[in-house]
Amino acid sequence: MSTVSAIELDVDLTDTRRRIVRVKERIPVGRSGTLTLLYPQWETASHAPSISAYRLAGLTLTAAGRKLPWRRNPAHPHRFDIDLPAGARHVDAQFQFLAPLGRDPSGILMDGIAGLAWNRVLLYPAGAPTQSLRVQPQVRLPPGMTAATALDGQQAGDVVRFKPVALDQLMDSPLLAARHIAVRPIPGGKAPVTARWIARDAESIAQAEDMDASLSAVVQETEAVFGPPPFARYDYLFGLDDRLPGPGGIEHASSSEVYLPNDFLANRSAALPYVDLIPHELIHAWNGAWRMPKDTQAPTPNDAFTGTLLWVYEGQTEFWSRILAARAGLRTGQDTLDALALDAAITDQRPRRQWKSLADSANDPLIQNGPPTWRDWQGREDYYVEGVLFWLDIDAQLRRCSAGAKGMDDFARLFFSTAGRATGQRHRPYTEADVVKTLNAVCAAPWGQRLRHKLDSNDDAQVLDGLRAHGWQLVFKPEPTPYFLASEAFDGVADLSWSIGLSASGSGSVKSVAWEGPAFMAGLVPGAKLVQVNGAPFSLQALRDAVAQTRFAPRVALVALIDGREVPVDIQYSGGHRYPALERLPDTPETLEALLKPRVVAKP
Questions:
Q1: Residue 1's pLDDT band (boundaries 50, 70, 90)?
Q2: Beta-bridge partners for 571
Q3: Mean pLDDT of all residues in 330-343
Q4: What single string gives the DSSP state of each residue in 523-581?
Q5: I want to staple 501 with a disulfide (CB 3.0 to 4.6 A). Which of 120, 251, 519, 585 is the partner?
Q6: Could you give the CA distance from residue 284 to residue 416 in angstroms, rounded to a whole number?
Q7: Residue 148: left (phi > 0), alpha (psi -120 to 50), or beta?
Q8: 383 vs 74, 181, 353, 365, 366, CA distance in Å?
């Protein structure tokens, strides 16, 4: 159904205590008859139908002075059918979005900070692609808050009125608001980039300017890989609040949400395991927004899509986030080598590959509901971490093919180029054939066959080929690297996955058990609670000491609370502590350190 003018959307975020978002919407209609309104369901960034209509409540519709009954389609519960009265020119909708109480980016509404994902607070008429629908949005903020978003608008008091925008762009332009925002222009890019640091207290953002040089390096190093930006401007929305769903990020074409701890700016050394988020979300402007897998394109957020190329969309982005974190100086070269060691150990350990290929892991967003119990056997979105090793191998193969002259930098410059982009063109979709074509343009080889073998294989032997080709091998040492310790602290566990085969929190909660590892064979399960270690009360130090003693006595005797009962768990193991690290392969050329070196700027 075509519209005669823009949809008017008015969103009220002031009820922070009850976390109720109140919505008023005026939807133009072109004729009488049956109108179908849709509530969005699918999200590209989530790669799944991740929006639930369960949080839409209190829906009331009126037109031509009459209250209109509506009917939900039972087979498609995000569809609402309405019979329009004669002479109706618009439908007025009122409803509430009941924001979740936990750490969820779909609805951030709490004291001192608020967030708005527009795709949770609107209905739109069926029958047209969302890029052809126009919306005039405005939002009422809690008193004293300022908005941060990539949208163009003016704030007057607590109300922000935005310029009319296409519906698909609105849904891709989130808003964060807070009483304390530091706005920092980031120099060095070919298009304006702004960092907006958002917090409920002034102390959290007091050192925002200290990140200017690092962010400038990220922007310049990213452009050095991918070429001129596909955006006219870009806004980093950094939410610094331990109540927010992070550390984590959500990509958008002209902005990104990056959620970080309160003390990120004051304690950047603790961020080693997740600092990749900063380049990762920016890279998605090229890989995922501009160059978008063809099968993820959908005309509306109620049309299903698939993600067969997530090993490119997310896997290659994750690869580049490791590389660019080092090139931009967010992390040292050695810390990045240690990060790659952990990637390699995680990937090498997971027996999931015996039955479930990397290609099949791209279906995980559609088939998984919550975290898996047996992580390394079921798998979960392994195209991220395994994707790092996958593309590291492609880089090594390109170097071999070209006698060292070409690598993944050359692929990215060709594949993600904005050259020849038409005015107003938002996306340039790609297929696997396009990936193969570009690899051949860098250096001709049987790339189609190679990719399919790596993607479809159930063979563990090849997953570390890229590391070895770059002159490195995965080893295990009795002492953890500083990066590994930071990763443990970030996860809040002692990670003994490569020794007795478990990770546990300080309270004794077993977070993971390695499939068919020593703890698994002894009968331990995720979710158990450890209460004793070798006859003493549980503590992480006691557990670590017990593992160290296995060099002399091959047994760790645990008592665990499982299904409400204390049961003995005797782990047979004799290897002592084992922590992943990288070690140089003798008599092999080293090319990895060169891959991590800056291309544009000295490290800040």
A1: very low
A2: 556
A3: 97
A4: T--TT-EEEEETTEE--HHHHHHHHHHTTTS--EEEEEEETTEEEEEEE-------EEE
A5: 519
A6: 11
A7: beta
A8: 35, 35, 12, 11, 14
What tokens were used for 298? 């959908």
User: Rounded to the nearest 5 degrees, what angle is found at the Cα of 489, between the Cα atoms of 488 and 493?
Assistant: 55
Buried b or exposed e, range 251-284, using 16+ CB within 10 angstroms: bbbbbbbbbbbbebbeebeebbbbbbbbbbbbbb
Distance separating alpha carbons of residues 339 and 602, to the nearest angstrom: 21
Give yes or no for a contact between 355 and 378, defined as CB atoms under 8 angstroms apart: no
Q: Which residues are paired to 116 by β-bridges?
A: 175
Instruction: Pick the more confident residue, 110 or 450.
Output: 450
DSSP code string of 367-433? H--S--SSHHHH--STTTHHHHHHHHHHHHHHHHHTTTS--HHHHHHHHT--TTPPTT-----B-HH
pLDDT of residue 579 exceeding 90:
yes
Highest mean pLDDT among 16-20, 369-373, 394-398: 394-398
335's enclosing H/E stretch is helix 333-349
CB 499 within 8 Å of CB 577? yes
Q: How many angstroms from the chain centroid is the CA of residue 64?
A: 44
Cβ atoms within 10 Å, residue 434: 17
Give dist(CA 587, CA 264) in Å, integer.
Answer: 42
CB neighbours of 250 closer than 8 A, spacing ≥ 6? 45, 105, 174, 256, 257, 281
Instruction: Read off the pLDDT of residues 457-508 as tens digits, 9 standing for 90 and up.
Output: 988 778 999 999 999 999 999 999 999 999 999 999 999 999 999 999 999 9
**Paired tokens of 419:** 């050259």
Using CA atoms, how far apart are residues 231 and 404, in angstroms rounded to an integer?
A: 33
Residues 6+ apart with CB under 8 A from 495: 484, 487, 488, 503
Q: What is the pLDDT of residue 370?
A: 81
Cut 0.90: pTM above it:
yes
- 415, pLDDT greater than 90: yes
Q: What does 263-303 look like in DSSP terms, one character per residue? A: TTTT-GGGGTTTTTHHHHHHHTTTBTTTB-BGGG--SSTTS
pLDDT, tens digit (0-9, with 9 covering 90-100), for 33-68: 889 999 999 999 999 999 999 999 999 999 988 999
Vertex 66 angle, CA 61 and 67, to 5°: 35
Percent share of the chain, pLDDT over 70: 98
- Identity of the residue numbered 174: P
Beta bridge partners of 235: 194, 255
How far is 367 from 361, CA to CA, in rounded Å? 10
